[in-house]
Amino acid sequence: MSKAQHFLLVFSFFFLGPVFSQEQDTKAKNILDDLSKTTKSYKTITADVMFSVFDKDKKVVEKPQVWKVSVKGDKFRIEIPGSSILCDGKTVWNYNKDAKEVTIKKFDSENDEQNPSRIFTMYETGYKYKFEKEEKSGAVLCEVIDLYPAVKPEKKKFHTIKLYVDKIKKQVVQLKMMMKDGGTQVYEVKSIKPNLEITDKSFVFDLTGLKPDQINDERD
């Protein structure tokens, strides 16, 4: 799985919505319900997310990257070093800036690897959860919730996700994905701006200037 695909998978934790399993932690559920309510009240979300990878000895594996994200309903745009991913709710364009090639696919809103709008709400389906503690992330007091995959956990590359929620603003501050190999992937929301005006054209990739051999159209 590429970094872009993995980010799309995780992105669903930050931006979408919950269908919880039974017999869950009541305090955790209340926190997640408040988070979901806050997130769904936004017409648009613009965020800068820092992505870091650590090995089992907690050493940085590679230089952290800042990814710029815009979401408007099912529409989204993600700027990752080397790539741009755009979706207008029907089509997904993945542009490789180095190769100057674009791959076009039909959008599947249920595919976590395609739909970053699910990063803010992935926890709503397929996860058990438990309130762990209150802890500061930088200067922000957070409520920390542990999430465990409930659907085919043996097929996941991670065993636990630690979700840090701003206790006051009810926004995602940080997400730590604890990998089965002992490593950790950290997604830290450096800034989040809700309800900015974003035109629909911002979510459509312009093919102007690309030659046919630079366009890989995988739509049926």
If you had to describe this structure to a student in words, what would you say it looks like?
With 220 residues, this protein is mainly beta. The protein is 13% helix and 42% strand. It contains 2 helices and 12 strands. It has helices at 3-15, 26-40; strands at 45-54, 65-72, 75-80, 83-87, 91-96, 101-106, 127-137, 140-149, 158-166, 172-179, 184-194, 215-217. The protein has a 12-stranded mixed sheet, covered by helices on one side. Strand 7 and strand 8 form a beta hairpin. It starts with a helix and ends with a strand. Residues 16-23 have low confidence and may be disordered.
Topology of this protein?
Layout (H helix, E strand, L loop, with lengths): L2 H13 L10 H15 L4 E10 L10 E8 L2 E6 L2 E5 L3 E6 L4 E6 L20 E11 L2 E10 L8 E9 L5 E8 L4 E11 L20 E3 L3
Parallel strand pairs: 6-12
Antiparallel strand pairs: 1-2, 1-11, 2-3, 3-4, 4-5, 5-6, 7-8, 8-9, 9-10, 10-11
